[in-house]
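Study this:
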Amino acid sequence: MGGDDYTWAAALMQRRRERFAQFSPVFWRPATGVEEAHAEFMRSLAAQDGTVAVRTDHGFAISTPAGDRCVVDDFAVDHDDLWRTDGAELAFGVWAARSFRQTTLRVVTATADEPKRTMLRSLGLTVVERWWVKELDSAGAEVIWGHVMLGSVSGLIVPAPPVYDPQGPVCLLNGIAAADAAVAADQAARRGAVLAIVPDTSDRSVVAPIFESAGFHNPSEFYEGEPR
């Protein structure tokens, strides 16, 4: 990728965010007026050592190194029916150009994006992590940034990535049990967070009833493996 490719890619990603906002209106709510900044971010990211940025006529993917993984976040195609063709080609493209130190491909996807998920499964990748999210009523609460104690667990209250606009800070709850999520989310709201996010690697069939009964839903997944 190069030149105006990043402007085109940023517009493509913005359209996808607008589409997925209907599935999780706060978590996926797109920020406005960020396409130029996102294009510049991807352009600068692609210039870093180990980053791979590839495109076809109808899609693009950018991977970054993270330990033994090459991680793909910005990844889109023009139409859903192109995931099985252009999408798969792009996944193999970043994999083929990776550093020899990366032995695993990690791809982020919306849970609602079934065509993309189908493509990832067809390459032999499997879900290794899900994000469980709950919208919070933090009206009138003063924001406490950074690390906070939420009952018996800790959380991290931070701004959302600039391409999203949940209209307030989010609270990341890493490494907590599903059973602790409800109390932690209530405590996060009292510290000004508008979203509680719990990354979880457990069996979905086991934890889903617990999260869902506490008002959480699962908007995103992380697939990993060696594509074939």
In short: The beta strands are 52-55, 59-66, 69-77, 104-110, 126-135, 146-150, 153-158, 170-172, 195-200, 217-225. The chain has two domains: 5-129, 131-219. Residues 131-219 form one domain.
